[in-house]
Every structure is written in structure tokens, then in C-alpha cells.
Amino acid sequence: MLQDGQMLAIKRAQQGSTQGGLEFKTEIELLSRVHHKNLVGLVGFCFEQGEQILVYEYMSNGSLKDSLTGRSGIALDWKRRLRVALGSARGLAYLHELADPPIIHRDVKSTNILLDENLTAKVADFGLSKLVSDCTKGHVSTQVKGTLGYLDPEYYTTQKLTEKSDVYSFGVVMLELITAKQPIEKGKYIVREIKLAMNKSDEEFYGLRDKMDRSLRDAGALPELGRYMELALKCVDETAAERPTMSEVVKEIEIIIQYSGASTSSSASASSSATDFGAVKGGDKVFYGDHLRKKEARDGDGGGAFDYSGGYSVPTNIEPK
Hints:
The protein is built from nine helices and 13 strands. The protein has two domains: 8-59 and 276-313, Phosphorylase Kinase, domain 1, CATH 3.30.200.20; 64-260, Transferase(Phosphotransferase) domain 1 (Transferase(Phosphotransferase), domain 1). It is of the alpha+beta class and 321 residues long. Helix 3 (78-97) runs antiparallel to helix 9, helix 5 (163-179) runs antiparallel to helix 8 and helix 8 (225-235) packs antiparallel against helix 9 (246-260). Strand 10 and strand 11 form a beta hairpin. The longest helix has 20 residues, at 78-97. The strands form five sheets. The chain has a five-stranded antiparallel beta sheet, with helices on one face.
């Protein structure tokens, strides 16, 4: 039990799951290396008596997908969506360029971008992630893993994983922020549908009026939508070499936010600087017993060897925002 009342989220491996065991070890190894405001922090873990439990900081507003589908009850306007895109991009840029060795997430999607009480976006779930230790080759040859709809087509065909595979997946998330729809819905692929619908002569909606999330479309003008869409389509280019790096994506989103009038000075923003780490609360390994009181469970999209089992609480001390 934590003494300061910090909320916690528990991730528990399925009993007897080999894949779950591998993901458990991967998450501990990687999350012990990285600390950033836009990455979900590992507070502790338990590995005894057949139990494999990871304990994270609790993200009270659930996943980005929860917000886009209306499940969380949180309305994301255009400015908030831009800030979510920026925060998650900064987290990925840190993994690719400031982590040593670099880390490829390999499963970037809206269910793995979580929102805290201030709607700060944090990248989560490192169970499929890979360390890039062989920098001379610039890629990792590996069995293809990820989520259908977000998967880099070049990685799928060559089995060569690079940071640009994460860039592709992030581009799909950028499109999802506009449509609020799953990447593959009723047999239609969001990337193909957006490319077919795009019309630059339509200065207001870029030809995407019928594809957009209704709440976004009905809210009025979306400043810098065109520039945003051009960036998203660069990210989902079928050729990895043509995609920007995540640091280039960060810079472009910062410019989009600046010109759109959505200030980045709020708590929803976090620097990707190597000197501006978000400290992981709780210190070293912490083991948890039966004293934690379970709160209402939140889950992800299911189907994995790990399940996000929700929040646990002890009396809360409110920290200043």
C-alpha cells in the first residue's frame, strides 16, 4: 500500500500464459530504462507464487479510444486533440531518439494512448516493444506483431522493424483523431478511405466532411486542418523512407498548434527534452498485498495476454495542478 494515496492501475498476466510472461519481462526491462512525462510510469511489480503483476500510475481518463468513442464521457475538441497528438508524439520521439538504446514501441494505437486527469497523453503498453541495439543496420528483423489496421505494410512484408513502423501507426492514430472510427470498419480501411476522399480545394473540411467525427465537424472551423492532414498522410506513406521521424512529427504538430491558437503551455503538454524527464512515482520495486481497495475496473480493447484491471485507491492527497 502506498502511503501518499496515489492511485494505481494493475496489469495482471493470465495464469500459465507464455506470451504474457514474455510481455511482463519486456515491460519491466523497458520501463525501468525510460522516464518521460508522456510515457506511463511503472510504479512497481510483483513476481511470486505464479503471479505476474505490473503496477502503473493510474490514468483516470482512460484511453484515447474511450474518449473518441464516447465511452469515457470526455469531449475532445480540436485543440485537445492536437495536444493529445503532440503529447503522444513526444513520448514516441523520446523512445526513438533519447532512450539508450532506442526503443520501438511496435503497438501504437488509440487504446495504448492513455489520458490522465489533466488530459495529458501518455504512451502505454510496452509488451511488444523492441530495443534497437544494432544501430548499424537500423532495423530489427523480427516476427511481425502488432494490431491490424495500425500495422506498417512495409514491416508486414519485409519483417524488418524500424522506428518508421511506429510513425506509420501514429499516422493512423492521427486519422483516428479526425474520424473517431476504428482503422478497419465494415471492411473499409481508414487510410485508403481518407486518401480517396481528400480534396485540397475544400479549404474548410479538406473533402473529409462525411468522414469526420460529427462532434468535431459540427464544432465549426478547424484551424490548420489541411496541414494536419498532410502530416498524417506523410506518416502513413507506404514507403518507410518517405515518412518523417517522430521528432519531425513533434516539430510539425507544435507549428500546427501555434498557428491554430491552441497554446502548448498548459499541463496537457510535456517536453521531449532529455533533461525534462517525468519522474516515476513510488521509487524502486514495490510489492502489493491485499490492502488495496479496488475501484471500478477499466479495461482496454481486450484479447491480450495482459488485461488492464483498473484503479486501486487509498485515501487521496490532491496535488496542485
